[in-house]
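Lab notebook, design round three. We kept the backbone fixed and only want residue identities now. Task for the bench partner: fill in a sequence for the structure below.
Input structure tokens:
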């Protein structure tokens, strides 16, 4: 049995929510900011880096890099490095309320949908339509692409009014 795209996307989103609960709200906020930065870098540098790679002689390096591959690679590298080494995350705030736990799960879900929307934005129209025909979730992600990009920032802003600020040292 071959898993469908919906199953793969669903597992990815479940892992994102689990990741958020394991690491906490502060770290998921760091991850969302890193994802935004990775998205911007991949979008801006992706085509230029693909052109650079195409200038390398074929006899030197086996180079079959597509723009999609380069953009996803840049996106992943910068997102992971900034999440691990960014050093701009807040310190954990201790006890969690039900609202904070719900906010953490929501932020994990939105980070996952943002990553999926980002990766789909790097794909060609043909690839997107192929995936969309096989996946209801991918179709939904494609139809509401702008919301998946903007919603994490809006939710972070909204949550800042609902939850108390972390205690000062």
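Proposed sequence:
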């Amino acid at each position: 049995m071959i898993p469908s795209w919906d199953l793969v996307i669903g597992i990815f989103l479940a892992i994102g929510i689990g990741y958020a609960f394991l690491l906490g709200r502060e770290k998921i906020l760091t991850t969302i900011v890193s994802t935004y930065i990775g998205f911007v870098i991949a979008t801006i540098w992706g085509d230029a880096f693909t052109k650079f790679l195409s200038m390398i002689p074929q006899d030197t390096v086996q180079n079959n890099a597509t723009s999609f591959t380069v953009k996803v690679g840049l996106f992943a590298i910068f997102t992971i490095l900034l999440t691990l080494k960014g050093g701009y995350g807040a310190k954990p705030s201790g006890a969690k309320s039900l609202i904070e736990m719900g906010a953490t799960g929501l932020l994990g879900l939105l980070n996952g949908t943002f990553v999926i929307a980002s990766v789909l934005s790097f794909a060609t129209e043909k690839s997107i339509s192929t995936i969309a025909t096989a996946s209801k979730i991918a179709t939904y992600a494609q139809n509401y692409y702008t919301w998946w990009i903007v919603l994490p920032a809006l939710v972070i802003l909204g949550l800042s009014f609902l939850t108390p600020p972390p205690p000062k040292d």
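Keep this in mind before ordering anything: The helical segments are 5-23, 25-54, 67-85, 98-122, 125-134, 136-143, 145-162.
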